[in-house]
Amino acid sequence: MALRTRTFLATAVTLAVLFLALFGAVSSITERSFGTLEARDGAAAATRIVQAVRAELSRLQSVSGDWAPWDDTYQYVAGEYPEYPTDNLMTDALANLRADVFVIADASGRILFAGGSDLEGGGERDLPADLAAACATAARTAPLATLEATGGILQTRQGALLVAVHPITNNALDAPANGWLLVGRFLDAAEITALSQTTGLTTTVYLPSGSNPADVAGAVGRLAASGSDRAVAPLNDDLLATYVQMPLFGGGGTAIIRGVADRSAYRESRNTLGLFAAAFIAAGLVLVAANLIVLDRSVLRRLKNLSSFLHRVEAAGVEARVPVEGTDELTSIERNINSMLDALD
Questions:
Q1: Pairing state between β 254-262 and 230-234
Q2: pLDDT digit string (tens) for 268-309?
Q3: How far apart are CA 296 and CA 3, in angstroms?
């Protein structure tokens, strides 16, 4: 194998090994750094999701807290004010409350009023019997003695319903509670859009009874194994998912709220690694070319000339002399050959 070829291969292999080692180290450091950054971003996203849901729940609890501890509502449940729904629960009133569902039940769980408003289409909403019954059953899980509002996400056949429940008592809060008042807002497309705008994430709510995507099922398993209520995982190279687990109101499992964000930081890291690789390869090619040029001019060309000269000596005798160039080791060889020729002449 020619010296030029061996030199090229040695240089190329050395650079390739160095490139792989450096690229592996830089890639590992970058992946860890951006992984930490994405975990931090995911934790912040989970906090935004929780805060947004709690803000809407707080609004519903405020509504239930206004209507449940009220003499008129208390008297209606006691059977002393039968005109209460007509006087107070008109469609416009429920629409102003932004209540999809408004249910009043007595202490035995018997439904006295079940209605709501169609916030998207306008007008009154007739509650299906199974929805009203589910609301009444869930309301009964709230203790009457505390006279405090509770709530959460309720799983219904119609979808996820965010509810607030408050025991019914009088204005003075000194009468024993005689029932529950439940106010609910469906987490429908409009509410999810509002939630997404608030959090800055593409948000979806998944219930145990639904047909959930594989990533959500996987998140449920990871959450159960870790004992945490939050998890972060990439969906693909472009999207990062944050999962928040919330217990269903009234029992029955947990809901998963998934928020999806763009993985801009990850893409930037991959682009940075790509630029690093391209720059290193370009620098390596320049280095190989420079080494070959220097080798050719300082060694290989002179060795070729020396070989040609020796052939001339063989053909023409010892009168010829080697041209002496430079001050390096080859220069010493050239002088030694000339000295030998002088001695032979």
A1: unpaired
A2: 777 777 776 777 777 777 777 777 777 777 777 777 777 777
A3: 10
Return the amino acid letter for 103: V
| Residue 203: count of CB within 10 angstroms of its CB | 26
Which region holds residue 170: left if phi is over 0, alpha if psi is between -120 and 50, else beta?
Answer: beta
- 8 Å CB contact between 241 and 259: yes
Of 265, 326, 228, nearest in space to 35 by CA:
265
DSSP string for residues in 223-250: HHHHT-SEEEEESSSSEEEEEEEEEBTT
151: β partners: 164
Classify the C-alpha dihedral 277-278-281-284 as positive or negative.
negative
Locate 151 and state its tokens.
């709530």
Residue 326 buriedness (CB in 10 A; 0-12 / 13-18 / 19+): exposed
Tell me how far CA of residue 12 lies from CA of 6, 27, 264, 280, 291, in angstroms: 10, 22, 35, 13, 11
pTM comes to 0.72
Using alpha carbons, select from 99, 143, 153 the residue that is nearest to residue 124.
99
pLDDT tens-digit profile of 28-60? 766 677 778 788 888 999 999 999 999 999 999
**Bridge partners, residue 231, by sequence:** 243
Exposed e or buried b for every residue in 257-275, given b needs 16+ CB within 10 A?
Answer: bbbbbebeebeebeeeeee
Token pair, residue 293, equals: 């040029």
